[in-house]
């Protein structure tokens, strides 16, 4: 029997899955607390203890978001254009974008970038043949700083030679790549994403001590968010030997962030609608760092608003005081492993999860604007139209372990959005990643795409 051992080393838990490749079945899975702060192998060994026969697996692969994940600073010229293109390139590569900067960097910006301690600086700016002054000036300021991270230059190609000389003189580690936006509103982010992944594999996992797991497995091959996006892409599109499901969206609600992945071109679904703005990635990922169930619960609660949460609690029969409400939130932030132990706590988590789902999707999808002209109204779409996606898939603890996961995921639907102009999903089939397989399937898809798709079809549970 051919088997594959697939591991997701997360910030909180290390999850392991052993698969039967020939039958596309899950043989076993387990999880243990991640011990990256001491010795990452302690947690891994604990998780592997419950997986019989893992040593004989044909593939032993891992992804990781431990130790803060892959962190990137994105820099561009215009916020809505090259800066946004750089941000999208970084997000699609599975990273966390700590901050995005536009125009010329100031001294204060450079100090802030040093303090943020990103893994990679992604420097873009200018279309090919467009403005060169800003990206060269920004390169000069970075060269004169104490920044020692890898720098990817993916801006106006006309400026490349000048920037190369600047960074060479300064002794910086840098890589020149194709422009992320060679022409106005045209994206070209794949080459930069491939380079980000290479730097992650060649340098960052060593810098974080994550390579110690190589004692037991073949290695970490990508960041966890990149694995989930890969799984979503292969499940939607299929491969030569296995049909895909078509357009879909994945919502991943975690302790620190809520990630939304969509695989669809997002072009206007209605006649008479014109598209405006930056081209959208076919496989798109957005990350909401203020919408997490534990580490980011304070900002999640603030974003939703106390009045709304307490009103929803009241509708469920729980009339709690303002002081008690604050205490419940603070407890979640201080005890990040907290699992609700009574119905009132479960209801509060569900309200937070449903709103995280709703807000994260409202930021991911596009919207439709009505413009009134002398000839009558016309309609302009900005961002992706995801009203007609076929499947909505939920993953993350609040969904996987919930008795009523539909309540959480339905928050994302168009009917539950406050803004009628949003192009959110209208009536997709809702599926639950009940065995935490999305990241594992993304890893397997690199080598066995047909089996990866079959595994997801077999185990994603309709709700």
From TrEMBL:
It comes from the Bacteria. This is MutL protein.
